[in-house]
Amino acid sequence: MTTSAEQxxxxxxxxxxxxxxxxxxxxxxxxxxxxxxxxxxxxLVDGKAVAIGxxxxxVSLEAGREAARICAINLLAQVKAALGDLDKVTxxxxxxxxxxxxxxxxxxxxxxxxxxxxxxxxxxEKGRHARTTIGVAVLPGDAxxxxxxxxxxx
Length: 154
Description:
The chain is of the alpha+beta class. The protein has a domain at 40-76 and 95-147: CATH 3.30.1330.40. The protein contains 3 helices and 7 strands; from the N terminus they run H-E-E-E-E-H-E-H-E-E. The protein has helices at 5-11, 61-83, 108-123; strands at 29-32, 35-42, 44-45, 48-49, 89-100, 130-136, 145-153. A 5-stranded mixed sheet has the order 1-2-7-5-6. Strands 3-4 form a two-stranded antiparallel sheet. Helix 2 crosses helix 3 (108-123). The relative contact order is 0.24.
């Protein structure tokens, strides 16, 4: 018997939140053909950033990794809002991650593993994806991490 993506989330103790409303002039997602583009999601729980500041200063690697995981949960909430069913995802194509960090912080890719690992936990092999990680000076609300995603859908 195949386990659905939502059953896997439940087994991990994860409940998808209500998708965050855009904070500026954009939409949370756009579908074009079989691709779903999800706007960057911050590390928000109940509207508040769980990691504030910069990696390499106020935020530890472990806290950054957890923040990236929360971003991924928020991405999946947008995907569910777009599709109604996470099992319509046929492939996680790409994640793009932004890590607020000091110039000397070199472990941005390790931070983004928090998001990547969740995609593989939920979708298995079809959760493996291409990825970019970029260190930045600051993110909205002084959040430490933001992740965007591209998904192939049925």
